[in-house]
């Protein structure tokens, strides 16, 4: 089977996530980039494209030109990666879907849910796949947690505490000089939120994936600490899930002392599970009236089907790139099955419905915060 071909829009030199997408897409040797608008700056786009061996005549000025010209080629890309700031996702994805490309797009998938639903309908109409890179669900141990929860190891879920806290926006006096933060704090490019959409949606997705629970309603306070800060940089939220379980989330980008501190604690009637990204290869599992255990990725308690999918041997750590790569592998396997009849089972990757759920979570949080933290049904 030949390598899949992809075109990439966004993720230029110095971007936060571009290189992660490219490493993840190539990790399993399943794909290679063939055309690009990595940046709106043509020279930057060209220099990176040449590093990747992309032919100069497939380096374009903008996404419209890329999609229009590439859709006419016999060796056109199998899929398009979108890694631009949030507000551009919708137009780019719409054009790619209209021109019959599968799409994998970063989160939040759009800046309002009507746009996200429109993309889902278009993908369905044209029989195309649409992945969303909520890549934290790519960690082996996150899959292990899901299986443990669904197998009843902790009983009925009662309470979930979640946090995604960082400190890179804590210097609020100077933060607007940081190019990665500047657009995130600009409602025209980021959408209605900063932290809620940027990292809160990852937390919402992680909880929903590991527990199969959906948020029924939430009450949120979106704070904007600092002068001239137009969007939230710290969020406090109470949530209620569809099984009646309760929870709370802390989402922050001003939490000094924290890097990418994503963590969950799931408390059930018979036990609890704790996991944090900074110790991604370990789960803490406690039983009612029993001892607490640290389950490592190398442990005999890891389910065989999860072990089978390890990207490094269990005694060595797997990290962020591997989690992202697993998400990409499953998306690309789904393309291989669909378009080429390959006899492979495509594992889990977040699809457009998951993206819609994330955008609805953002909208509910904004509505609640604007209405004295009123409970809002999703
Ligand atoms: N999944 C994750 O874990 C994760 C992590 C970080 C960022 N993100 C998401 O990825 C996206 C990009 O974030 P970032 O931090 O890398 O941004 P960034 O500002 O670091 O980089 C954005 C890149 O996109 C390019 N760009 C902007 N508009 C463009 C356009 N119209 N056409 C082509 N290129 C364009 C810029 O030149 C730049 O190279 C955002 O949606 C963000 O929410 C996801």
TrEMBL record:
GO terms for molecular function: nucleotide binding. SUPFAM superfamilies: Glyceraldehyde-3-phosphate dehydrogenase-like, C-terminal domain, NAD(P)-binding Rossmann-fold domains. Pfam families: GFO_IDH_MocA (PF01408), GFO_IDH_MocA_C3 (PF22725). Residues 143-273 form the GFO/IDH/MocA-like oxidoreductase domain. Residues 4-134 form the Gfo/Idh/MocA-like oxidoreductase N-terminal domain. This is Predicted dehydrogenase. The lineage of its organism: Bacteria, Thermotogati, Thermotogota, Thermotogae, Petrotogales.
